[in-house]
Amino acid sequence: DQADAVRALPPAEQQAMIRSMVDRLAARLAENPRDEAGWLRLMRARQVLGDAAQARAARDKALAAFAGDAAAQGRIRTAAGELGL
Q1: Residue 21: which H helix or E strand, with range?
Q2: At what angle do helices 36-48 and 52-65 cross, to 10 degrees?
Q3: All residues at 6 or more sequence positions from 36 whose CB lies less than 8 Å from its CB, including other chains
Q4: Please, which contacts does 70-74 make with residues 24 or more away whose CB atoms are closer than 8 Å?
Q5: What is the DSSP letter of 34?
Q6: Measuring CA to CA, how many Å separate 18 from each of 6, 7, 15, 68?
Q7: DSSP code of 40?
Q8: In this model, does residue 19 exceed pLDDT 80?
Q9: What single-letter DSSP state applies at residue 51?
């Protein structure tokens, strides 16, 4: 399990591995932006990592990816609000 592998690492390596996973998610979303759940995970991950500016950027990209889809935009805005974005 990937989570167990991360927990087994020293703290600095844990952070590097987590950031790498988050960066891969961001890259995947750049290629396939119509993944609402992926954007929500990215916003949450960036916020948890203390990257509020990147979390807001993810929110903005998600909203742009779902332009014209009021329901998806509503869910994205709700999640962003819950994250304090």
Answers
A1: helix 11-31
A2: 170
A3: 62, 66, 72, 75, 76
A4: 72/36
A5: -
A6: 8, 10, 5, 33
A7: H
A8: yes
A9: -
Q: Of 6-10, 32-36, 39-43, 79-83, which range is least confident?
A: 6-10
> Rounded CA gap, 79 and 9, in Å?
31
**pTM of this structure:** 0.86
Instruction: Using alpha carbons, select from 77, 59, 65, 55 the residue that is nearest to residue 31.
Output: 65
Torsion over CA of 29, 30, 33 and 36, rounded to 10 degrees? Answer: 30
What are the structure tokens assigned to 39, written together?
Answer: 């954007």
CB of 2 closer than 8 Å to CB of 22: no
Q: What is the Cα–Cα distance from 63 to 73, expressed in whole angstroms?
A: 6
